[in-house]
Fold:
Amino acid sequence: MKYLLTFFVLLSLNSAGWAQSQCELMFQEKLWGQKFYHAYKPSKEPITVGIEVEALVPTKIGLSGIVKILESEIQKTYGEVFVDHRPDSLIEYRVSYYKSGTQYTYQVHRGWHGTNKKFIDAEISSPIVRDKNDLDFFLNTLNILKRKVKLKAQPSQAGVHVHFGFSKTSEAELGFLITLFSVLEKQILQTFSTTNSRQNRYTNTSSESLLYYLQNTPVNQLRLNSMYSVVSEKKKNYALNILSLQKYETVEMRLFNSSVNASHVLQMVNFTVGFMNAVRSKDPRLTQFLMSNKNSHQLDLQELAKALDLPILSQSEKRALRAIKFQSIKSELGERFSREN
Structure:
């Protein structure tokens, strides 16, 4: 990673008269983005989330079968539902309803274009999730789709993408998020078992060019457009995608493997909400963790997860989770969204 390259550059400068202690001080400051952390104020924006699930659906059922289930579940819960079908559009189906005067829209369309003849690839995108009830409805519906239309995960090729609302962000706030994530990135990918095939194609590790730009540019000279330009070469295909800010005012975590298990998707959402909100709100627990590690040459994800109460599971816990029915854990794990909001 770029911060390691910076460290070696600083070590070479030591022979030219730099004291070792000065080098270490500068390296540690760049380790987790201290210069950014002290340059932005906590956000007061409400938490919003968007969830995209890529999966396989039997060809004989197709996208229309997914839409029928969505339509039925929405009618049961919210009443009137509107289906907009555009066969030639990138977004083939839009399924909308109103809740408290606000329009919510599911999108259903072809996904990454798999080659399995018995199944077609599908992507189901949630509306903007604003509260725990919205989240529970999405996860319950996913559970029903898995059961009734035989929705199937494809972790080697497809993913679950979680968008977190990042409106009214600043260069310093975004710089801190990117730097902190890059330090923890390998541990996060390992923890969530991101497949190698997806890492090589769809979830590239943090852009070294972007990290170089952030580390070598004074905070007051950083520009969001410059940050977007640096990463635009590979478009959105990073584990942490900041280009979604331009269109949706969100930052997207793309590292999660495809899953139609509602409890797994819930864990992905809870991790994203907990991590992102700690950055946005400058959670005192995060501040304390960083200050206690200011002299460290590495940050430990498990220690951070413990400090922030992030839902990171060990391998044995993951195996145990597979044996638990979604309904029995939904209320317990789903509390994070309403608590953080």
Q: What stands out?
A: Residues 1-29, 319-333 have pLDDT under 50 and may be disordered.
